[in-house]
Every structure is written in C-alpha cells, then in structure tokens.
Amino acid sequence: MLTLYDYLPSGNGYKVRLLLSQLGIPFRLVEKDILKGETRTPEFLAINPDGRIPAVVFEDNRRLAQSDAMLFYFAEGTPFLPADRFARAEALQWMFFEQYSHEPQVAVARFWIHCLGKRKEWADRLQEKWQKGYQALDVMERHLDGRKFFVGERYSIADIALYGYTHVAEEGDFDLDRYPHIRAWLDRVADQPGHVLITQAEFG
Amino acid sequence: MLTLYDYLPSGNGYKVRLLLSQLGIPFRLVEKDILKGETRTPEFLAINPDGRIPAVVFEDNRRLAQSDAMLFYFAEGTPFLPADRFARAEALQWMFFEQYSHEPQVAVARFWIHCLGKRKEWADRLQEKWQKGYQALDVMERHLDGRKFFVGERYSIADIALYGYTHVAEEGDFDLDRYPHIRAWLDRVADQPGHVLITQAEFG
Question: ipTM > 0.85?
C-alpha cells in the first residue's frame, strides 16, 4: 500500500486524498505537523528534500512530491485526466495557475489566519495576499461564467487542484459571496461521487 | 504559425522559446513590455485573463498560458517528455517545484535587481528571497550530485524549466560558485543541440 505523508489542514494534501478516494486507491496516511517542524527533520527530508507535505512513498520505495504532480500521476488513464492532448495541457495550465497565482495568496492568507491565528502579526502582508488572491478568484469567476467545470465541461484534476484551497478561502477572510459562478462550481465539485471532506482522516 | 506573446528578459518565456527552437517549431514572437503594463491591457487580458506572459495563440485561435503547461504540450510525443509514466510524474514534480519553490524566489530577486534596478527599495524583502532561493538551489544541488539531468539521466522539459531562471540567478545576486553540480549541469544544458540564448530574438 502507498503511504501519504500529510497534514490534514493542508489543501495541497487534501487534493491528493480526494483524488485517491475517488479513484478507490487505498493509502496509509501518516500525519506530519508542519507547525512542529516535522517536515524539516532529517528523516522527512530523506522522503522529500524540499521539506513539504504532501509526499508519497510507494510500496517499492519510489517517492513523489508536489501535489499536482501526484494528481497527474494517479489520474493518468482515468476520466479524471482529459484524454485529449490540448485539454490535458489546459488542465495543466489551470494546475500551474493554481500553484503560482492562487495558492501562494489564498492558502497563505488562510494559513496565517486560520492555522497560526496571527492575523494581526501579518496585517501588512495580508493586504497584498488579499489583493492578489482576489485577482486569482476573479480569473476563476470569469472562466466559470457559462462553464460547469474548468476543462472540457467535465470534472477533472484541474477542478480538484483549484477546489483544494478555494473551498476554504473564507478561512483566509476571502469573501466568496461576490462570486456566484465559483460558488455554484464548489457545489458541483462537492456533489461528485466519492467526495470526501478536508477534515476527513479515515478513508476506504 | 503559432504566436508567442513574450517579454525577452523573462525566464518563463525563454523556457518556451528554447523548447520550440529545439523542436524546430516555427513561431511568431510578439513582445509585450511588462514594465509598461502591456500585459494588463484589455486586449492582452483577452488572450490571457491572468495577465502574464508567456501566452501562446495557435493558428486556430486556441490559447494556452503557463510556461510549464506549454512545455508539456509541445514535448508530448517527443524525447523531451519522458515516455515512462513515473518519469513523466517526476518531470512534473520538478516543474511544479520550479514554479512554487524556485521561481518566486530566484526570478523575483532577479526581477527587482536586474530588470527594475531597485535593490535598495526591495532590500527587506530580498533577504527572504535569497534565503528561500538558496533553499531551492540546495535541493537542486543535492539532486544533481551523481546525476547528469533531473529525470532519467536524459535532458527533458524538467531541465528546461529549471534552467530558465537558474542560469541567470547571478543577476539576482545569487552566488552559484558554491554549487559545482548545478554549474556542471548548466554547462550540459547549454551544450544541447539547438540551444538558444535568453537574449535571442530571432529564431528559425
């Protein structure tokens, strides 16, 4: 069985937990508390030299880091990855958008406020996170106007990648009420068969 | 012919120029000066709603954003993308590492210092960029100890993605003298057939 090293509040880890659950792939969850530095120990750095969760270790000891690389790997050959070459590139486009334009703003604001409880300490930097985070949400809202999902009108790993932190953006003080298309899309994603919650610790 | 909207000093744009040149795919280069806000005009936002270069427009008007999604798209079915499924995931792992752990540090320090000439104005934030940028370079250095390339011992889009900003890291005041494995790898990448320079504006 494969092992997923993870931190339950992490949206990045959640993306992988969600896909594995929907694919019916069993996995062992090993929690690492990033607030206690458990991803920067020599033992963990031997698993992922970049010192981040999630990290996957396969039964034959191969390792893989980066949540969106995991999504792509597990989704290959399944309906979760578009079969069409250009649609596959579009899925990757949205996944790189997520890691570059969305996560560093939306997830980091949530981490400071919700996980660390340090809204005041990070007040200056939060202004920038909100401004740029709303820019990313604006891009999503415009794309979802008239579309059900991000790529090819069907649920894919592009939706899973963007759902991870968007569905908890309010924990970073983002107001989603101004985004009707995003809200309807969040509901559609949550309605998919086999959906699990970010707080869920037991699978299979 | 496809059109690449780009800003010549951009390492992200350069990655795409380099792969297209090595694949022998002709393209029309349209320069957009990000310092003059040319990627935030209504006309450009119609091409890439995220307001960033590089952006590709195909002859049939399809559009693609995100440099690493472009690399994957153009490399599919060529030796630049590993044929093995796990190696393909490893290539994506390094490309997501590049966009998440490397580019926001190494490229941004270079942008502030080399493109904007504002080392003093950004002095406080540069400390953090250098610290985290060196962490990313450390990860690369350890991985390249005993390896010729990032994945499967052959040149791939993982190398192109990481080469883009690493080879100009010194323009962001990063000292590469401490990284013998990275320096040897930079030389190996520059020795590949069809290599072009980041400053090169004419192709084909």
Answer: yes
